[in-house]
Amino acid sequence: MEVDCEGCAGCCIDWRPLTGRDIDHERRGPFEPLDDAYNLVPLAREEVRAFVDAGYGDALRPRLWRADDDRSVTLDGVDVAAIDGRPVFFVGLRKPPKPVAPFDRPTTWLRSCVFLDPTTLQCRVHDDDLYPDACATYPGENLLLETESECERVESVHGGRRLLDDEPPDVTPRFGPGAVGERVFAHPEPDRVESRVGRFRDGDPTPEDRAEFVAVAAASSPGTLAVNGERYEQALEAVLRADSWAGRAIDRWERAAVADGKRARDAPDPGVVEDADGAPSTPGW
């Protein structure tokens, strides 16, 4: 599998505002996400733990889904997907607005992965042990399942060739019965998160809301609904005290940004917002 990512980052940004076409999420499963984050990266349990241990708990966020059948539980007036009455979710990387210029377009405010360098359009953890497997193997799962990849969407809208080799690699789909406790998690106490669900629905979760779910994911056990109480407490404390360059950059970008898709004429310098605050450099092309 070979791809050309230079000047693209289509799988790392929400570039829908740059086109009038109806481009939907890469959704997995039958449910609709509560949030509108585009291509949210699903992290495995060990990856969640690694980010938390590295001090990046403030760069993580959960995703919950709507459901209208018997596989749901009603919390804060929202029917959310559940297993045995427990709301299910996965954990991904936050996507704040950033001033980026993909596809040779003018610099624009677009929702982008927290670890995407707005200047080089490269991942700041690409050469790090933290680099998620879902990113490292993309679009392998799409090719395996014969579903359209972001590379192909970019080609159809902006031209050029991004997917240079469409031979499916040797990857295993990340979702299925074995995903419980590994990539899909279940919160053990629905009553404890009832008031939080409404804020996720409204797109305004607090740091405490995000931390609650991230800590449960970090304390989950593969193949079961079990959550280790001691590990949960440790993870919750670590996420709540996280103060990384990534989390600070999210706050700065959100304060500076105008509407998604608008020209970023007066955007702060990414070198000041991210690089000068300790963000790792990117390797270059």
Automatic annotation (TrEMBL):
In this chain, composition skew of type Basic and acidic residues spans 258-268
Q: Which domain of life is it from?
A: Archaea
InterPro entries under this entry? DUF7531
Residue ranges of region Disordered?
A: 258-285
**Any single Pfam family the record assigns to this protein:** DUF7531
Q: What is this protein called?
A: YkgJ family cysteine cluster protein
Which lineage ranks, top first, belong to the organism behind this chain?
Archaea, Methanobacteriati, Methanobacteriota, Stenosarchaea group, Halobacteria
